[in-house]
């Protein structure tokens, strides 16, 4: 008898599947749609959309939307003097309740370094999941190559980002890639993290 996957919602359990899910990310051109990207499932239905600076008109701000266009997550780069002196840049992810109030659900720390491959980007969630560590997830690999994963605090891969060989052979760009999300993992949270990675590395969500 198969073991049921533990559900680990960050945004909502609605975005946690009992089985592994493969989703496809396609970047939108800045000149046509203001950048950002769309996420589709195996039926080619849009399940998420990310709007960045080109759509919102605000630097350091991202919005993750569901397939209907409703906002699920507001992500902002934290600023100020204290942040400027910190060894990390911080990004905060907020959900909205039915009254429109914001609730912090995750913080992503981006190292201030010219060698990002040697410095892990780490994410902590609210409420905190990991015991004995200051973070719950980290990025392994290098996002610009579309060859990386989101791992939990004990090293389990929860989401894998990659490019299928047949796509890589016909496309020189990295504008189309796939994300494998493990059972029980919040897909909305995964794509919120990917939205920040996209912005950090100057891709579709950045002006």
How would you summarize the topology of this molecule?
Blueprint: E1 21-27, H1 30-33, E2 37-40, E3 46-51, H2 53-56, E4 61-66, E5 71-77, H3 81-85, E6 88-96, E7 102-111, E8 122-125, E9 137-142, E10 147-152, E11 157-162, H4 165-170, E12 176-181, H5 187-200
Please, could you describe this protein's structure?
The protein has 5 helices and 12 strands. It is globular and about 45 Å long. It has helices at about 30-35, 55, 80-85, 165-170, 185-200, and strands at about 20-25, 35-40, 45-50, 60-65, 70-75, 90-95, 100-110, 120-125, 135-140, 145-150, 155-160, 175-180. The mean pLDDT is about 85. The protein has a 12-stranded antiparallel β-barrel with strand order 1-2-3-4-5-6-7-8-9-10-11-12. The chain is α+β, with helices and mostly antiparallel strands and about 210 residues long. β6 and β7 form a beta hairpin. Belongs to the LOR family. This is Protein LURP-one-related 6. InterPro entries: LOR (IPR007612), LOR_sf (IPR038595), Tubby-like_C (IPR025659).
- Helix- and strand-based class? alpha+beta
Order of helices and strands: EHEEHEEHEEEEEEHEH
Strands in their spatial order, largest beta sheet: 1-2-3-4-5-6-7-8-9-10-11-12
Please state the oligomeric state of the protein chains shown: single chain
Query: How would you state the average pLDDT, rounded?
Result: 83
Can you tell me the overall shape? globular
Pfam families: LOR
Organism: Hibiscus sabdariffa (roselle)
Family: Belongs to the LOR family.
Protein name: Protein LURP-one-related 6
